[in-house]
Structure formats: C-alpha cells, structure tokens
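WARN no homologs supplied; continuing
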Amino acid sequence: MNNTTFIGLDIATRGLYAAQRGLTNVNHNIDNINTPGYSRQVLQQQAARPMMAADGSGMLGMGTDVTGIKRVRDEYLDTKYRSEVQYLGEWDVKHTLLEEMQTMYNEPSKSGFNTVLNQFYDTLQQLATDPSSHSTRAAVKEKAIAVTKYFNSVATHFEYLQNDVNNTIYAKVNEINSLADQIAKLNQQIYNYEVTGNVANDLRDQRGYLVDKLSQLVNVQAYETVTGKLPNGHDDIRFSVVISGKALVDHIHVTHIVTQQRAEKKNAEDIENLYELSWEDGNQITIRSGELKGYLDVRDGNDGLNGSPDFRGIPYYQRRMNEFVRVLARTFNEGVIDIDGDGVLDKVNGHVDGYTLNSQAGDPAAGIRFFTMFDEYGNPMSSTAFASGAGTPPSPLIPGTDEFKAYYDAMYSQITAKNFSISSEIDENPSNNIATSDSPAQVGNIENLRSIMAMRHNAYMFMEGSPEDYIKTIISTMGVDGQQAKAHLDNQSIMTRQIDNRRQSISGVSIDEEMGNLVRYQHAYNAAAKMIQTYAELLDILVNRLGI
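OK structure emitted
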C-alpha cells in the first residue's frame, strides 16, 4: 500500500482541524461582540513543513498548521486614545460643575441678586419720602435681610458643592487604586500564562479595558518593557502604568495614591478638612489631567492665589462674593469709598454718621452700623462688637492714608458672604435705629439717607463699577468659563470619538465579516471532510476489494 494515501489522509485531517478551530474562533468573536474592550481574534495559519519526495522529484506539501490565535490591535491608536480621553474626562467634569455653579446665582430671576438689591434700595427710596414711617422702616429691615440671605445662601451652596467635590475626589482616588490592583493581578496572570510561550489574548483585552478606564480618571501612560530573557529564550516582558513619571503599577507591584486631610486651609475660603493627595511612599504626586484633575481644579482653583491652580473654581468665586459684601457693608456703614477713581479711599456720610429717629438736640451721631455679621452663635453682631474686631482706630483717622485703609480693611475682613448680616441694632429696633438724618432731632431730615443711596451708583465703588456691575462681571466670567469648558469638551469629544472609531474599525467585531468567515470555514470543513471520506473509500478499495 502506498504511503502517499496515508499522507493524504493526514493532510485532510489537518485541514479539518484547522477549519474546526476557525469555526470556534468565529464563535468566540460573535459571543463577545458586545464585550467592552474585546479585540477580535483571527486564526493564524501557515503551510506545514513539506516532505521530500522519495524519488527525489521535489517537495511534497503536508497541508496546513494553525500557529496561533492573534488579537487584532493597533497599539498606536490605544496610546492616542488614552492621551485624549484624559482631557475629555477633565473638561467633562469642569463643564458639569461650572453649569451647577451658575445655577447658584439664580440670575436672571425674581429672587436673584438684582431683584433683591433693587427691592432693598426701593424701600430706602420709600423711606426717603416718609422717614418717620415705622412700617417702611420695618420693610427696609426685611429687604436688607433678603439681601444678606441671598449671599448667605450662595456661599452655603458653594460650601456644599466643595464638600461634595472633595468626597468625589476621595472616591476617585479609591477607584484609581482599585483599577491599579486589578491591573497588577492581570499582569501576574498574563505573565504566568505567556511565560510558557502562549498568548493571553482575552486577559490582555481585560487589562487594556481597565487602562482605558484609568486614562479617563487620571493622566497615565501604559507600556510594556523587555527586562531580559527567560530560560526558554523568550523575552521577559513587564507591563507598567505611570502617572507623571512615577509608576502606579510596576508589573505586579502597586504604589497607591493616598488621601490625607489638610492640617491647614490652603485658601481662606475653603471648608475644613479638604483632602490632599500624595503617593503612599510620601512623595508628591502631580495630577495633570483626567477627571481627578477636573475635580481638583474646581475644588481648589483660586486663579493662582496661594499656590492654587490657575483656574477659577469654588474658592475664587467665594472670594469674589466675600469681596463684594465687605465693600458693600463698608460703603453703606462708613461712607468709605473711592469717590473719584484715583485709587484712594475717601470719606462721606455713611450710616454710622447718622442720627436715630428719637435722637435729641446735642446727641452725638448714633454710630450704628447697618450691616455686620453673625456671631459664633448665629446671632447678628452689634456695631460695637463688630468694630472691636479691628482693634483701636488710629488717631487721627485721616482718609486717604495707609492707616485709614488698613483700619477698615481689618474691620471688614471679618465679614464673609456666609456670615453677612444686619446688625443687632437694626434687627432689634429698625423703627428707631435706621439713621436717615445727618443732624439730631430732625425727623424729616434725610441727608444721611441721601448720601447712602447716592453711593449705590458710584462707578468707583468696585474696580468693575457699581454693585450691579460687579455681580454682572462675576456671572459673566463664570459664563465665559462655562463656554470655554463646553468648547474644550466638544473638541475632545470629537477627537476621542474619532480615534475610538478608528480603533473599533480595526479591533471591533463585525458581524458581517464573521458571518463571511463562518461560511468560509464551514466550506473548508466540509471540503476536508469530503477529502477524508474520499481517502476512506480509497483505503476500503485497497484493503477490502483488492486484497491479496
């Protein structure tokens, strides 16, 4: 019997097995078409080593060998995607939080800043027409409380948001550490499997998917390095993930990021116990992008002050609100204002210079401050207690001098948007203590009130102009920041989506392509089976019908 017959049977069997493995691979691809991070796999085949013909007439083909299953992946596109998705994560966070911050000002609305401030000055105008009206004086008090509560509310909501962002930072750090631990475990499994010469396709897909998720959270770089040769001659390959040059994952070792509450505030506007980040070995960590960077910038951004990011985040807008209430209170109370825009503080009549409704001839000015702040128990502070916080005033107190400015800066630096309040004198007895007159025992005198109301439209009260101009500047600045964040987000979304589409076009599973492969391998399987059947018939004839 010719050995060629058995060789043909062996070749047909190889083809049958190759087609069977191809069908199995198609089945695996289709089953994972919706698996996140999965890369389609293709069968690698090559012609089997040929055999020299016995008569020396040439080489006899030996069919096909399946040399492996390869995952289709473009490492360049993976790297490019991860370098772009980190900025997508950052601007997505900033855009979302800036939109939330804009709603806190509630402008324009019937309960926004312009409304409450206009209503307050409208009641002052009504009081000017009848300064002896107790009902109008009571209305002035209530509208003043509405002004203070507006700022109290905005400041409180900013604090709530900063606390929420701080807690989110803690959660994101834990998520990053968890992903790093999972990657390190996969590194160990992949290494143990591939050290024998196999390829851990599905495990590599899982690892790549985790790195993709990690890239959106923080700026990472992931790469494999060859550290030497194994005893079997294969490369000793290690996988690392680094953040700003320091390894988060070094093969199977992980260096965690730790959160520790600050001992001291970085910004005066911050809430207590914000988290500071570092490596667990004590080294400083640098976060350059990703969702974590977005949350840190919004939480800490004070436009570069005190080492904070050059980003206008919660502390920046809290500081601007604090500046507003301090200047408003100082101007209304003391009449201390830059009259002509020369940068020097002047002095005109403020509330403290006026006289009460029941003042008598010869009485001194009431010295009552309309706005102060809440004390530690949450009660409006008296004028005297409030002024004592600045210490003893210099004598003489000369407008325009450095001592003059320093004294009032010290006094009004105590006020914040959160503790802004009317004074206890106004709160307890507005009927008498709202000082409209600039002379004692003159009920109809409203000169002091005129001076106070005139300052409202002074274009030099703030660097931005009048009170309305100042708040409009804050809101418009936040609006511009939000628009820029939206523009960055849209650009990054387009770039990231384009790169991911390119990745999917290469690595993704196409149902049409797999159906084509299914038919191709099915036909190959049937043909190989037919060859085996044919050789079986030949052998049957040789053995059973042509027997000796």
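The CA atoms of residues 341 and 417 lie 25 Å apart.
OK
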